[in-house]
Write a structure and sequence with these properties.
Distance between the termini: 38 Å
CATH topology: FAD/NAD(P)-binding domain
Strand order of the largest sheet: 6-5-14-15-16-13-17-20
CATH class: Alpha Beta
Bound molecules: flavin-adenine dinucleotide
Largest sheet: 8 strands, mixed
Structural class: alpha+beta
Length: about 400
């Protein structure tokens, strides 16, 4: 027989990773009345520039938890996005009004991932069932019939924790995935991308620019995404340069001048260079250890679907865990994997790959053809709605719900 304090310790769900997926899983579980302990190796919410797009279904999922008001305060509602040939100025605009009868939120919100995580972290501080431990790294995990034991280290002190389940939301380099020797099949794209944020008001100088614009440039491509008080530019990475050279002030200045000539030098807030992968695990559930978010799948950021897909994993998984907590069968965890994995493959990875291919095309004739095809879609309300249902990630979720 277990002592009372030990039973209480076990009577929780463990989460590793305090990114958007781990934090949202903690919000959902504690909202159901389930205690959680979340361990995050960083000392605080990561400030790295990463995701900035929140799609309609994610807003629907976050609405009941009071997250959205703060997201709206820290973000920008964007109801139109465009594909643009920056050389000629021709563009095609997609308007989310076409899906207004399908969602309460017919727009994307441009809000930085770090802000979203800070909002969720603040909410969890007021949640007595949430034990959120920063500067705490998961070292290993072992499961048995009834639960999972993890070894963590905090300020050089090792400790063992036990819970009924472990959600591995520990990102693309997941410790848990490596420890369980779960293959992460897929590939790495050859190119690198440079991401910068700047207060420069592109919208005042580039006529007809939408707050989310994917552009072809003469010798590459770039995107411009507006955030409150800043723009974020994803720039192509000239192949002949090293990452250091591509990130140099002069190189960034030159690329931004190519986009929008300015008499003043561009002020840069943040910059980073990154590589993109498309990978996925074979299944998301491994006994009582459940993979979610980037730990389970990676895709090109083109279209802004990675973090959103992870939030949808967390939403689906926590619904199943709540049912199991209240007496349902463990086989629901198979259903989690059956519902989420094909959607990541068919909708998220595939669509992001198509978006990337479309925008990395350099041939002017093919670009013209693509633009004409896109225009034909926007001019047909039925086709436009169907396209936006996919790109806004609504179709994928509905498809997942039909899988049993
Ligand atoms: C440049 C860029 C732009 C992007 N843009 C978008 C976008 O617009 N929209 C979108 O939807 N997605 C976008 N993405 C993808 C998005 O950032 C990721 O999908 C998202 O961060 C995944 O969240 P996560 O919680 O699964 O993982 P992460 O955010 O990586 O969080 C994992 C956490 O686990 C912690 N951790 C790791 N190992 C351990 C351990 N052993 N112990 C304890 N903690 C651990 C890490 O410190 C980290 O905080 C973008 C990505 C990049 C790189």
């Amino acid at each position: 027989m277990l002592s009372t304090s030990k039973s209480r310790e076990e009577n929780r769900i463990l989460i590793t990773g305090g990114g958007p997926v781990g934090l949202f899983a903690a919000i959902r579980l504690t909202g159901f009345g389930i205690p959680v302990t979340l361990v995050e190796k960083n000392s605080t919410v990561s400030q790295n520039i990463r995701a900035s797009t929140i799609h309609p279904p994610s807003l629907e999922m976050m609405a009941p938890y009071g997250i959205n008001d703060e997201v709206f305060n820290n973000g920008l509602k964007v109801s139109q996005w465009q594909i643009r040939n920056h050389v000629t100025g021709e563009n095609v605009i997609f308007d989310l009004k076409h899906i207004a009868d399908e969602t309460e939120f017919p727009y994307r919100v441009q809000c930085e991932q770090s802000k979203l995580c800070e909002i969720m972290n603040r909410l969890l501080k007021h949640q007595p069932l949430a034990d959120i431990r920063y500067s705490t790294e998961l070292l290993s995990a072992i499961q048995d019939k009834n639960g999972v034991n993890i070894k963590v280290v905090h300020k050089k002190r090792e400790e063992e924790l036990r819970g009924r389940f472990l959600i591995a939301a520990d990102g693309g380099t997941s410790t848990i995935r490596s420890q369980l020797r779960i293959p992460f099949e897929g590939s790495t794209y050859p190119e690198r991308t440079v991401l910068v944020t700047t207060p420069f008001p592109f919208h005042k100088y580039i006529e007809g620019l939408s707050s989310v614009t994917y552009c072809w440039q003469k010798n590459g491509n770039f995107s411009l995404l507006q955030l409150p008080n800043r723009w974020r530019a994803s720039l192509y990475f000239p192949e002949e340069l090293s990452p250091e050279e591509a990130l140099s002030e002069d190189q960034i200045e030159q690329q931004l001048q190519d986009i929008c000539p300015s008499t003043e030098r561009f002020k840069i807030y943040d910059k980073r260079v990154y590589r993109v992968h498309q990978r996925i695990v074979d299944k998301y559930n491994h006994g009582r250890i459940l993979l979610a978010g980037d730990a389970a799948h990676l895709n090109s950021p083109s279209g802004g679907m990675g973090m959103n897909g992870g939030l949808h994993d967390a939403n689906n998984l926590t619904e199943k865990l709540n049912k199991i907590w209240n007496g349902d069968d463990l086989s629901l965890l198979d259903l989690y994997s059956r519902q989420r994995k094909p959607i990541a493959e068919r909708q998220i990875i595939k669509q992001a790959d198509q978006n990337r291919k479309r925008m990395t095309e350099k041939n002017p004739t093919k670009r013209r053809k693509t633009l004409a095809e896109m225009r034909a879609i926007t001019e047909n309300p039925v086709k436009c709605k169907s396209f936006l249902m996919k790109s806004s990630m609504i179709e994928g979720l509905r498809e997942a719900n039909l899988i049993n």
